[in-house]
Batch of 2 targets.
Target 1
Amino acid sequence: MANYTRLPVSFRHGKGCWLWDDAGEKYLDALSGIAVCGLGHAHPAVSHAIKEQADLLLHTSNVYNIELQEQLARRLNALCATESVFFCNSGAEANEAAIKIARRYGHSRDISHAKIIVMDGAFHGRTLATLSATGNSKAKEGFAPLVEGFAQVPYNDIDAVATYSDDPNVVAVMVEPIQGEGGICIPDENYLPELRKLCSDNKWLLITDEIQSGIGRSGRWLGAQHSGVKADVITLAKGLANGVPIGACLAHGVAAKMLGPGSHGSTFGGNPLACRAALAVINTIEQDDLMRNAAVMGEYLKKGFETRLAGLVIVKEIRGQGLLIGIELNTPCAELAKKALDKHMLINVTAERVIRLLPPLILQQSEADLIIETVSDLITDFAGQNT
Ligand SMILES: Cc1ncc(COP(=O)(O)O)c(C=O)c1O
């Protein structure tokens, strides 16, 4: 179907931060399949885990115990300070589970028309419920009637959320600790802690969508860990298994008890192959200190861009945390993704005017230098054409 606008290239193989197309041309991947391949391409630990598991067992069913799923759940619970995990195959499904948990939580409190507070500019997925929770009107176009039960407020505006304190139907707040699709938006330092307090005071669940910001990308396992905030429900996907489809909805406290037998499920969710790959990813991030690398390389990239782009009026802001980096221009710049491709560099433009960089967590300084040089040159040329 014609639902994707594709760039004219097709990749055949990859190694580390690099990809090769079908004509043998080499490209630097500064996007990681949109925050998926944190360990880069063809990482030996992941390849080995997948190959070995393929020879053992791919799939049984969630009607049986799955030891690797339990191992992965224990690892995730330890890293995220949660108690239980539901596994699925994508980010949208992880968020669907979170929304269903919030609805059940509402019913447990005799709230039959549960409302979840969501944010302008948010992106939570493309299924009907997650689309309804998404704060991007273009993504919703033509899909009405949407799922009811979401109230949208401006991001990074605690007062806007607080106005719902008197609304008896609110059961949860759903938020990205760093908005990805919305343009790499990082809230004020006190926003998430205040949101946590507001949720606790009002008996609302705090749901953090860490699908783009999680698994080391921001320099910590979770984006919310930078502000010491612990959510009731956390969703993960993208970087969790480096390209093998997986999603996870983690919960603790009352939220961890909402889905009983038969209340939710997934045929493929948490199968041995995906869990084995995810365990290899987590082990490698830990063993190779990749979160520290993400933090160091992220700062290096930001400083490099600040130096190279200083004084350029077209550049509104350079921002980021770890290897989630956005360069906001003061004009739409979607064409820059193709222009970068022509220079053998993969980048992306989101929210119309934000150049988004999500390189692998294994990025080396020489590769960061190439990203700074190539992207800065592109922006400088673009600025010349737009004056
Ligand atoms: C923050 C966030 N949530 C949810 C999703 C949806 O994930 P998926 O495409 O795996 O369904 C995305 C995808 O971009 C995302 O960035």
Target 2
Amino acid sequence: MKALAINGSARKNGNTAALLKSALEGSASVGAETSLVHLYDLNYRGCTGCVACKLLGGSSFGSCAQRDDLTQILEQAKNADVLFLGSPMYFNDVTGQLRGFFERFLFPAITYTKERVILYPKRVSVGLCFTSNAPGSFYTDFYERLKNTFTHIIGPAEYVEASETWQFDDYSKYAADMFDVEARLKRHLEVFPEDCKKAYEMGRRLASAQ
Ligand SMILES: Cc1cc2nc3c(=O)[nH]c(=O)nc-3n(C[C@H](O)[C@H](O)[C@H](O)COP(=O)(O)O)c2cc1C
């Protein structure tokens, strides 16, 4: 059983990566074979709207026709049993890199037919991992929307979030005095490990259900 995590943050040891690694550890604890991909290591573009994935009888029907570093990752994601997707919030959305992945992963799966059809061969359980500066409730609608999109197209989805995260190694060195640094540090030391535990539990639950 395969669990794949896709990191949409450029920071390989940042908050998002920590949630994803915890989720993978949870899956590994029940026997999953795990792997982690950092999208910022890859060279690719988002969907170009070529619509080759919708061409009836075409060689790329139901899959992305672009050939680049993402091609193999898209195949791995389709064939995983459990898929974790992580992103920091960047201007009230996922990062551009993860957005590009979403376009290339989600669009070839669907058709514009009257009858609803999903072209991917199997359902994949999805665990979304989000991190933000903003407090917890701020992005609930956004997270729920993405969860529903993935449930609809890819497979049963759930999410964990870590909010008011630790962003700078030393806040005093940066133009960032709007933050209550002591409260942030306390949260980083006390709440963030709990968020990671939630990610671990999610990883274990999704892999156990396979
Ligand atoms: C370019 C940029 C844009 C950001 N925009 C937001 C935002 O809109 N809302 C928010 O809550 N945090 C925002 N943040 C903060 C990050 O989401 C937060 O620090 C996150 O935990 C970083 O995750 P990482 O350590 O995995 O990179 C932004 C950070 C950057 C660098």
